[in-house]
Specification:
This is SAE1 enzyme. InterPro entries: Ubiquitin-activating_enz. One of its GO terms (molecular function) is ubiquitin-like modifier activating enzyme activity. It comes from Nothocercus nigrocapillus. The protein is an alpha+beta fold and about 120 residues long. It has a single domain, classed as Ubiquitin-activating enzyme E1, inactive adenylation domain, subdomain 2 (Rossmann fold). It is about 30% helix and about 40% strand. A three-stranded mixed beta sheet has the order 1-2-3. Strands 4-5 form a two-stranded antiparallel sheet. The radius of gyration is 22 Å and the shape is extended.
């Protein structure tokens, strides 16, 4: 489900329905130069391709090159990952008056507060 130009209450309600029924939910809007986008994909599984790390050859003398892990771009492995997305209601209900919030506040874009 994709929403735009909706009130906050409508977005929260539709996201709750989508989350309950395992339906992916996207919402966003633009206000002049500012905009936002939110995605609730529920439990999302995906596969990530990772480059294998080549191991150092045994019997090679110690030196600066032997301590560094070498990447072999020709060999890759597929790693399955899972991410649990939060609901819009939870994302909008963050408590900003704690010690943990101070660090998060520095990483949060000012546009988040425009949505509020």
């Amino acid at each position: 489900v994709c929403l735009t130009c909706c009130s906050r209450d409508v977005m929260v309600r539709i996201d709750q329905l989508c989350h309950k029924n395992s339906i992916k939910f996207f919402t966003g809007d633009v206000f002049g130069y500012h905009g936002y986008m939110f995605a609730d994909l529920g439990e999302h599984e995906f596969v990530e391709e990772k480059t294998k790390v080549a191991k150092a050859s045994p019997g090679v003398e110690d030196g600066p090159d032997t301590k560094k892990a070498k990447l072999d771009p020709s060999e890759t492995t597929m790693v399955k990952k899972r991410v649990a997305f939060c609901q819009l209601k939870e994302a909008l209900a963050v408590e900003w008056s704690g010690e943990k919030a101070q660090a998060a506040l520095r990483r949060t874009a000012p546009d988040y507060f425009l949505l509020q």
